[in-house]
Automatic annotation (TrEMBL):
GO terms for cellular component: cytosol; protein-DNA complex. This is Response regulator. One of its GO terms (biological process) is regulation of DNA-templated transcription. Residues 6-119 form the Response regulatory domain. It holds the Pfam family Response_reg. Residues 134-181 bind DNA. Keywords: DNA-binding, Phosphoprotein, Transcription, Transcription regulation, Two-component regulatory system. It comes from Photobacterium damselae subsp. damselae (Listonella damsela). One of its GO terms (molecular function) is transcription cis-regulatory region binding. The modification 4-aspartylphosphate is found at residue 55. Residues 134-181 form the OmpR/PhoB-type domain.
Length: 181
């Protein structure tokens, strides 16, 4: 199940990032790391991971803010990591869109079990049919949410709500790349 799965580790503690990178890589995952929010956003723009491990307490944008940012454009599974095992923090994290929560220090085996369980839940079954149109379409520095007709500029962080005509025209262009229309 872990073969080829991409995990983004976002933690300001270099030692934690390196330990998680080493452990997850040995377990067959492709690991990408980020030390803070802006770096995380650049890594997300370069390609969406299969799962994100996100530290709560970081300088600049904290994990809660970053979780909200991720949820604006993605349904990628998120496990929040925290040194504080406060129940209220856990509730806030889950309400903001995190899928699981684990307090530091944690055992690597427990973390691996949670990662595998979460990936198992989001893995599409063979009987499910793929939607006719994906929820998100990425191109250049843009991401289109096909359910809300909102176009996100990933580089600048801006969002634009498209009219029906603009959305239809953009979908036409996206459905026929490299063609003169």
């Amino acid at each position: 199940m872990s073969q080829g799965k991409k995990v983004l580790v976002v933690d300001d503690d270099q030692e934690i990032r390196e330990l998680l990178d080493e452990y997850l890589t040995k377990s067959g995952f492709h690991v990408v790391t980020a030390a803070e929010g802006e770096e995380m956003k650049r890594k997300l723009a370069a390609g969406e991971p299969d799962l994100i491990l996100l530290d709560v307490m970081m300088p600049g944008d904290d994990g809660f803010t970053l979780c909200q940012h991720i949820r604006k454009t993605s349904d990628v599974p998120i496990i929040m990591l925290t040194a504080v095992s406060d129940e209220m923090d856990q509730i806030i994290g889950l309400e903001l869109g995190a899928d699981d929560y684990i307090a530091k220090p944690f055992s690597p085996r427990q973390l691996m079990a949670r990662i595998k369980a979460l990936l198992r839940r989001v893995k599409p079954t063979e009987t499910q049919q793929a939607p006719a149109t994906p929820k998100f379409i990425r191109f250049a520095n843009w991401r289109l949410d096909t359910s809300t007709h909102i176009l996100y500029n990933l580089e600048k962080g801006h969002e634009h709500e498209l009219t029906g005509g603009d959305y239809a025209l953009l979908m036409l262009f996206l459905s026929r790349p490299n063609e003169i229309l």
